[in-house]
């Protein structure tokens, strides 16, 4: 069985972070493992408090996984501070980790900041060059590219700029756009739009975590990047389209939705 590791923060209410990653990887047919960067007291209404792991203990979590069950792909989510980012980069370089997907988590949907300002620079210089693909949403891409994004041309320019600066493919997610679910991939000098149908469901807590974990799982299974993205967008539409309605805020998605057609065959 193929394997994937999520390095991210937690969500006790199960919608985002490590919890979403493990559900997504499992449902996408790989063996899911985790290394926790921070314990986050959060639910569908927002983030209450964060307790960060020490870099040394995070390094030990990564070591025990790689020494025993080397992952076929690694997804990196919330990493709040420079020391943790540097530790991840150092360990992943040491193990020559493959299929690294970086979701540059900066601010929760609720508005709570999940990364320090200094750490954004460390993320740019240490983590992005290790990624096969980085998956910013529009506000994150504005910070990584150092430009405002208003129109489709801005999305294309920002993805190209980030890709060229850090030598990784960039999937710029349009979920924050008003009425579509179109994402733009810039990889190896070529730009491609991935079109999606906007699902009218306000319960989008953890969409970014889910998409990046599904991409990592599909890369682990040997699909190429564009195929992994297409399959992951389909998975996300299924999870969002199941219309689960839990919690008092922006609720989580349903991962054990009915898998149909090609996906069901693959997930067996
Ligand atoms: N309402 C929706 N209907 C269909 N697809 C959506 C919807 N909202 C987001 N998506 C898709 O979900 C994926 C994640 O995009 P989004 O921009 O929401 O990420 P994000 O902001 O990082 O997520 P998060 O809320 O976890 O921070 C993208 O593929 C996007 O197109
Ligand atoms: C541990 C962790 N990682 C990522 C997110 C972003 O997800 P969202 O923007 O949907 O709140 C989060 N809230 N918590």
Automatic annotation (TrEMBL):
Keywords: ATP-binding, Kinase, Nucleotide-binding, Thiamine biosynthesis, Transferase. Pathway: Cofactor biosynthesis; thiamine diphosphate biosynthesis; 4-amino-2-methyl-5-diphosphomethylpyrimidine from 5-amino-1-(5-phospho-D-ribosyl)imidazole: step 2/3; Cofactor biosynthesis; thiamine diphosphate biosynthesis; 4-amino-2-methyl-5-diphosphomethylpyrimidine from 5-amino-1-(5-phospho-D-ribosyl)imidazole: step 3/3. InterPro entries: HMP/HMP-P_kinase_dom, PM/HMP-P_kinase-1, Ribokinase-like. One of its GO terms (molecular function) is hydroxymethylpyrimidine kinase activity. Pfam families: Phos_pyr_kin. It catalyses: 4-amino-2-methyl-5-(phosphooxymethyl)pyrimidine + ATP = 4-amino-2-methyl-5-(diphosphooxymethyl)pyrimidine + ADP; 4-amino-5-hydroxymethyl-2-methylpyrimidine + ATP = 4-amino-2-methyl-5-(phosphooxymethyl)pyrimidine + ADP + H(+). GO terms for cellular component: cytosol. PANTHER family: HYDROXYMETHYLPYRIMIDINE_PHOSPHOMETHYLPYRIMIDINE KINASE THI20-RELATED, PHOSPHOMETHYLPYRIMIDINE KINASE. Belongs to the ThiD family. This is Hydroxymethylpyrimidine/phosphomethylpyrimidine kinase. The gene is thiD.
